[in-house]
Structure formats: C-alpha cells, structure tokens
C-alpha cells in the first residue's frame, strides 16, 4: 500500500511542474489532478428485512491523468488510479463454516459493519468552461469506476458478543459503477451508483441478495 501512495505522490508532483511550464494563454492544457473524496454511503436493493445501523461513509484519494480531446481544452478524457475505504452498515449476519457462507437477518446486533479497502480505477469524460489562465470554472465530469477489493471485514457486536469475518469468499472482488461530478471552483458534488452487487451467489433463504452501493458526497480536485 505504501508503494501505491508513493507512486501517486510522484505522479502528482511531476504533473504540477509540467502544467506550470505550459499554462500560456491559447495553449492546450491538461488538468492532471489529485482528488480527495468524502461520501455518505447507502446500500440499495437490500433484502426487505435487512436494516442497517449507524452511519455509513467512504473516503477516497487518487490521481487523474487528463487527455485533451479538443483545441480549447474544454473536453477531455481522464483516467485515474486511487485508494478507497468504505464503512457500510449492511443489516445482515454472516457465518462461514467449512468454506460455506450463509446469511441471515438478526436485528439484535447493535453494530454490523462492513469495512472495505479497494483500489479504484476511474474513467471520465470531462467538460469545463475554463482556459489555461482561469482557475474558477464550472465542471461536469461523467464516467465509470471499477474497484478491486483488497480486503473486506464483516464485524458484529451487541451487548454480550462480538465477532468478525475477514475476506469473505462471497464478496465481489470487482465492482463497477457510474459516476457524475458537478461543481464550481473547488466545490464539486459527486455521485456513484453501483451497477453490480457487493456479494456474489449470496441468498437470504430463497431470495437473492442484490445489495449495491450508492455514494453521495463531495470530491475535491487539486491541481
């Protein structure tokens, strides 16, 4: 993990010096950026009886490489890599015995958190009404994001008991979603809508568990 952050830091540093040399009026320019995001998370398509408890949130940080698609620099394609940490209150109780994973609903637990560490790979089509010498502008960035799971931990506790399961085999290693970022200057609203479930081949009785992630928050792009 330290190597990932070191590479992100080096890429960000190089991009700063490259842009300072190229910010001339009328020139093509790119917005290579470090991004930081904080989000409120919500699971949807949950089993009807499953109820989460407590606050769910997410934190992300990474680097985006901007590839200009027109002369004005207002439209571009951006590809990035980053790290994501999510805390999700999922409302399910998991047990794993002899490599068999089962799910049930038990609302007696005061805490049922899922802790997730991911590598994320965002891809965006970008529009902005800026130029090389304008730093306050409107932006609309639409795209998709793939996430590769590094680890997942299901933690449960109540007044008398606490236990956890790490790297549950039913957790979906690759997850995908669509993204939209809209904002002005340094403040940008961000939405992520998951397209595939966080669990695979998982069921609650006879009903399939199709829980997906919705994230709503703020993302900050730093030149």
Structural category is: mainly beta
Helical residue percent band: under 10%
Percentage of residues in DSSP E strands: over 45%
**Form type:** elongated
Cα Rg: 20 Å
Query: Helical element count?
Result: 1
Overall domain count? 1
- The beta-strand count equals 13
Assembly classification = single chain
Amino-to-carboxy terminus distance: 23 Å
Summarize the main sheet. 8 strands, antiparallel, barrel
**Mean pLDDT across residues:** 81
Regions with pLDDT < 50 over 5+ consecutive residues? 2-26
String of helices and strands: HEEEEEEEEEEEEE
Please state how the strands of the largest beta sheet are arranged side by side: 1-2-3-6-7-9-10-13
Notes on the protein architecture:
This protein has about 220 residues and is mainly beta. The protein is about 10% helix and about 55% strand. The strands form three sheets. The protein has an eight-stranded antiparallel beta barrel. Strands 4-5 form a two-stranded antiparallel sheet. Strands 11-12 form a two-stranded antiparallel sheet. The longest helix has 21 residues, at about 1-20. The two termini are about 25 Å apart. The relative contact order is 0.20. The model is unreliable at about 1-25 (pLDDT under 50).
